[in-house]
Amino acid sequence: MTLRGKQALVTGAGSGIGAALCRALVAAGAEVMCTDVDAAAAENTASTLGPGARSARLDVTDAAAVQAAVDEVVQRAGRLDLMFNNAGIVWGGDTELLTLEQWNAIIDVNIRGVVHGVAAAYPLMVRQGHGHIVNTASMAGLTAAGQVTSYVMTKHAVVGLSLALRSEAAARGVRVLAVCPAAVETPILDKGSVGGFVGRDYFLQAQGGKPYDADRLARDVLRAVERDKPILVKPRIAHAQWWFARLAPGLMNRVSMRFIADQRAKQAQSRPSTL
Ligand SMILES: NC(=O)c1ccc[n+]([C@@H]2O[C@H](COP(=O)([O-])OP(=O)(O)OC[C@H]3O[C@@H](n4cnc5c(N)ncnc54)[C@H](O)[C@@H]3O)[C@@H](O)[C@H]2O)c1
């Protein structure tokens, strides 16, 4: 499969991985609709990419707006080949500090946002007889570390949705990929802290190295699309963590408990809440 001439829509395209996906898609010859709840950020991504990129404000929590964005691409280009459900948020910190509003917000963006993308794009792709849905999940969708508990819940949902849909979509000509990176160098590492949690420290210590490059990840994603992979896990070390979690869940849990104890000790001497 080549990406040249393909029609793509990316959510959360104003920053980080979404912006990198847009750059990689245009570099591969695809045409991309860059969307984000932050219209200026989406426009900023598209403005550097020439005529192959357009932009629009799109809040993925608004199902009708997601449907309208998909319809707009189809009206203009005649089809949608690639749907990247990428927008996401994180809350990091002790779970007893999360408000119900924060729980609802992360469910709305990370789960319902992906559901809205699938509900808009999948029936269309079934009618077309082809298409590729790429859901940005996370290593948090394959393993379960504490203090990002609400995030882990949402990303497990995205992995489950992606793998189950993949198994029934194949016979309809539609492909599905779950993207599961560990820490990637994007602004999300510095967002969503509750009660002294420092995402950058947490994720980098969990990963045992520096964050993966977003543009490199985007190229990996497009290669996984071309090869029709079910799951993309990056970096390589994350494969070992994934295997460890599956083969020795009890031991993994004890390692996670010790990790959280270390993190709490650091957080106790750290900054106040950024909320
Ligand atoms: N950076 C990492 O370490 C990492 C690792 C694994 C998975 N992820 C996932 O990658 C995806 C992209 O995250 P990122 O790291 O690029 O973060 P980011 O914060 O740089 O970008 C996220 C983008 O999503 C947008 N967004 C937030 N709420 C939205 C909404 N309701 N509708 C539309 N857009 C919205 C933001 O405006 C932002 O531009 C997320 O799903 C995240 O969970 C990130």
TrEMBL record:
Q: Which domain of life is it from?
A: Bacteria
Which Pfam families does this UniProt record tie to the protein? adh_short (PF00106)
Gene Ontology cellular component list: membrane
Q: Which PROSITE patterns match?
A: ADH_SHORT
What CDD domains would the database entry show?
A: SDR_c (cd05233)
Give the keywords, sorted.
Oxidoreductase
Gene Ontology molecular-function annotations: oxidoreductase activity
Q: Which InterPro entries match?
A: NAD(P)-bd_dom_sf, Sc_DH/Rdtase_CS, SDR_fam
Which SUPFAM superfamilies has this protein been placed in? NAD(P)-binding Rossmann-fold domains (SSF51735)
What family does the entry list? Belongs to the short-chain dehydrogenases/reductases (SDR) family.
Fetch the PANTHER family from UniProt: DEHYDROGENASE/REDUCTASE SDR FAMILY MEMBER 7B (PTHR44196), DEHYDROGENASE_REDUCTASE SDR FAMILY MEMBER 7B (PTHR44196:SF1)
- Stated name of the protein: Short-chain dehydrogenase
Species the sequence originates in: Mycolicibacterium flavescens (Mycobacterium flavescens)
